[in-house]
């Protein structure tokens, strides 16, 4: 029987080459999309699964909840958190810390910048790794111990087990290789490298933090040092433990007015898509999975439509089989079997296409998905189950429709021509509703990308270069002397990320969290920001304004409104309405009371977080950590080379990092940009599938209506009349599709846009344009075939059958 089913299926493939090819291509595209999405999602959802005991290992992420701010989550936490959690909670079996740092490693002539993790001696107790050489339990117990991965060891030493050999860190600190680990899996870990060094070293980030944190805490501040990992005892109740931590830690942290601090436990395989640390990461995974399923569903719609549309050709076969004694159940089984065979053939093409596209998909999504069915039994089982499920689901409706034909009807040469017509129309409507929805989504997300990376910034970002370095006057003078540099000013990192804020009490007693940005006021002019009130002082001796001094404070428009000033001009020269503390610890309360200017609201992450009250204050040059440079736009390669040379000569350790502001902003909204690009690709795939489906349906519809067309032409209908009739048949579902797609996509996109602090509005023109484009695509697809049929001679049509 199985052989017979296979023979019948292959015979039908050969008998209907056009519709069979369209069905196979459509299924192949849908299955390829589902395979790529499945591989990508599996990689994303299995981060850190190579670590034994990952189910009980958690990151203790610091959480600050200031008044007026959303909760702020940090990968790092204060150095004392690990000890506090271990000593006060019996559910925590062990705790350790690691602190990432960018360093330079050198061995003989080989030197490069690497990401290294300063770690407590017990780090590998919680984060065990496959070891190539050495003893991990003792590897970090000596202060000069360093653990490398196999590839790093081969890079610097030419072999994979250089135990006892020395490597130089930052040019001054010799470190001894105490163990070698296997390489990290590609994109399977939140760790950027597998290089670990002993946190016991005096120059390590952990030791420095342990020495400096008490002094910082005595001033009422918190120093975030490194990542804290804890391992829970078996059968621990996570929710109960988190509740206890939330009530305990705020009591031991330094007290801040209007703010609480605690630690949130995140299982290590969920850190990279935890919403508080990586906004939008979870939604990206949902979008990938949902759109892949939509594409697969669309390809199944094409298959179902074409199968049922061919029912007139299978009617006689069904009638003969039933007359010979075949039951409906046997016919259903036959057609389901044929469907599975089609899906198996399509899967073969899909796997070949997926293997070809996977490297590009990995590069686009920064993923590390692998498609290796031979060495991945779980993936193979999922693939087999998916093939059977898709085959049964895609073939169920056609099987029930075809098996329902009655022998006495079909053997008389009469077929229920309307059989399945309504369902086919409904599926076409749904297919084009999906297409219209994807076109609308692509358009709106693209507009939002342009808005948040350009229009909403309100600053000039072209040719702006940023250098992470100590901002020394001599270095600034050298940079300004370059012919390709039009300006250079200092600021803190908070100008970029708004990562520094203070908690104050207003004179009316209400608490308020205020962002604090330290900068040379000349930086405003560098970004094209002009004050709405007042005049900006500057440190620049060539500036036209007064000289900036420690008593100057600039506020933004939001701060002016929050302080109750009637207008920006009313704030000039007024004292800050604060009941506690100046905006900067280095200034006296009296000095901090002079508002010299009010600037427009701006921020580089304005699409992610709302504008908040902000102080802009000066600081000593040696406290700045960011140099803002405006390039002239000429001789950029030569200018960048000179900047690198000057900044490297001024640096005491590793060369400073430099980057363009535009690239920084692009990275901020990388997830949104990828969503827009991915949806654009998916919309293109949906267009192809829709065209394939309509092409097959047009051929089948014309075939079913051949006699009708011949009679109409014999009765006087012209070619244009027949063409309009055929085109209207495919126009109606598109109009219904617009009625379905517009409200649904509007609702979903409205919710998506609400995730941004500032966003574009949904324009009715977007929906009208998407619907019109779908209609044009549909008519262009079927017009050529319909025109050929409309021009056919009536005598040829009447001879049909």
> In order across it, which strands form the biggest sheet?
4-5-10-7-9-8
Our measurement of the CA-to-CA distance between the termini, rounded to an integer number of angstroms, reads 32 Å
Mean pLDDT over all positions: 81
Radius of gyration: 34 Å
Low-pLDDT windows of residues: 582-592
Structure overview:
It is a single chain. This protein is of the alpha+beta class. It has three domains: 1-55 and 278-419, no CATH class; 68-257, no CATH class; 464-667, no CATH class. Helix content is 50%, strand content 17%. The protein contains 26 helices and 22 strands. It has a six-stranded mixed beta barrel with strand order 4-5-10-7-9-8. A six-stranded mixed beta sheet has the order 15-16-20-18-19-17. A hairpin with a 3-residue loop joins strand 8 (166-169) and strand 9. It starts with a helix and ends with a helix.
């Amino acid at each position: 029987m199985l052989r017979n089913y296979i023979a019948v299926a292959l015979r039908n493939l050969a008998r209907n080459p056009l519709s069979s090819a369209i069905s196979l291509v459509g299924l192949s595209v849908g299955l390829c999309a589902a395979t790529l999405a499945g591989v990508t999602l599996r990689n994303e959802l299995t981060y850190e699964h190579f670590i034994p005991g990952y189910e009980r290992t958690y990151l203790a992420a610091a959480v600050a909840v200031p008044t007026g701010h959303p909760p702020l989550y940090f990968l790092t936490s204060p150095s004392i958190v690990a000890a506090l959690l271990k000593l006060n909670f019996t559910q925590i079996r062990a705790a350790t810390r690691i602190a990432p740092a960018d360093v330079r490693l050198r061995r003989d002539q080989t030197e490069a910048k690497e990401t290294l993790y300063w770690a407590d001696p017990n780090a590998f107790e919680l984060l065990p790794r496959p070891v190539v050489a050495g003893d991990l339990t003792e590897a970090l117990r000596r202060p000069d111990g360093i653990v490398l991965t196999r590839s790093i060891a081969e890079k610097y030493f030419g072999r994979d087990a250089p135990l006892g050999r020395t490597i130089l860190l930052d040019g001054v600190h010799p470190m001894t290789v105490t163990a070698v680990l296997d390489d990290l899996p590609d994109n399977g870990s939140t760790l950027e490298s597998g290089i670990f060094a002993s946190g016991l070293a005096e120059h390590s980030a952990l030791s420095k933090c342990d020495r400096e944190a008490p002094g910082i805490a005595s001033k009422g501040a918190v120093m975030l040092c490194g990542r804290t990992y804890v391992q829970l005892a078996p059968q621990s109740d996570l929710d109960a433990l988190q509740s206890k931590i939330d009530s305990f830690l705020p009591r031991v942290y330094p007290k801040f007015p209007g703010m609480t601090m605690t630690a949130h436990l995140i299982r290590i395989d969920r850190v990279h898509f935890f919403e508080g640390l990586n906004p939008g990461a979870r939604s990206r995974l949902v979008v990938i999975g949902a759109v892949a399923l939509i594409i697969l569903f669309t390809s199944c719609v094409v298959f179902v439509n074409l199968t049922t549309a061919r029912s007139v050709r299978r009617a006689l076969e069904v009638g003969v089989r039933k007359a010979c004694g075949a039951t409906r159940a046997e016919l259903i089984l036959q057609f389901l079997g044929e469907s599975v065979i089609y899906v198996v053939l399509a899967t073969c093409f899909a796997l070949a296409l997926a293997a070809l596209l996977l490297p590009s998909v990995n590069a686009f999504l920064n993923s590390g998905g692998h498609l290796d069915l031979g060495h991945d039994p779980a993936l193979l089982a999922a693939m087999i189950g998916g093939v059977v499920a898709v085959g049964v689901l895609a073939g169920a409706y056609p099987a029930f429709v075809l098996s329902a034909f009655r022998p006495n009807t079909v053997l008389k040469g009469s077929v229920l021509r309307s059989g399945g017509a309504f369902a086919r129309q409904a599926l076409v409507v749904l297919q084009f509703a999906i297409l219209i929805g994807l076109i609308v989504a692509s358009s709106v997300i693209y507009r939002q990308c342009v808005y948040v990376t350009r229009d909403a910034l309100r600053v000039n970002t072209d040719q702006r270069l940023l250098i992470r370095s100590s901002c020394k006057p001599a270095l600034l003078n050298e940079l300004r002397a370059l012919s390709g540099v039009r300006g250079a000013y200092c600021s803190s990192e908070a100008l970029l990320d708004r990562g520094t804020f203070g908690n104050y009490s207003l004179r009316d007693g209400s608490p308020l969290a205020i962002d604090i940005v330290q900068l040379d006021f000349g930086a405003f002019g560098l970004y094209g920001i002009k004050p709405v009130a007042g005049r900006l002082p500057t440190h620049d001796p060539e500036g036209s304004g007064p000289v900036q001094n420690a008593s100057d404070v600039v506020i933004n428009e939001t701060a002016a409104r929050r302080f109750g000033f009637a207008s920006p001009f009313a704030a000039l020269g007024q004292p800050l309405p604060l009941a506690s503390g100046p905006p900067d610890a280095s200034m006296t309360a009296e000095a901090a009371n002079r508002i010299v200017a009010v600037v427009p609201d701006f921020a580089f992450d304005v699409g992610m977080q709302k504008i908040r009250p902000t102080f802009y204050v000066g600081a000593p040059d040696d406290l700045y950590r960011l140099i803002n440079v405006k390039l002239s736009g000429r001789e950029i390669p030569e200018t960048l080379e000179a900047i690198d040379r000057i900044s490297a000569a001024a640096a005491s350790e590793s060369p400073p990092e430099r980057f363009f502001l535009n690239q920084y902003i692009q990275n901020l909204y990388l997830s949104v940009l990828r969503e827009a690009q991915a949806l654009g690709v998916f919309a293109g795939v949906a267009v192809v599938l829709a065209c394939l489906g309509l092409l097959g349906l047009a051929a089948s519809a014309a075939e079913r209506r051949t006699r009708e067309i011949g009679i109409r032409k014999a009765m006087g209908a012209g070619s244009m009349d027949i063409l309009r009739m055929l085109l209207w048949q495919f126009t109606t579902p598109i109009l219904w599709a617009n009625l379905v797609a517009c409200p649904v996509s509007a609702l979903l996109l409205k919710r998506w846009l609400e995730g941004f602090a500032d966003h574009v509005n949904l324009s009715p023109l977007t929906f009208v344009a998407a619907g019109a484009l779908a209609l044009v695509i549909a008519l262009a697809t079927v017009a050529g075939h319909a025109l050929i049929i409309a021009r056919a001679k009536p005598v040829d049509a009447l001879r049909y059958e």
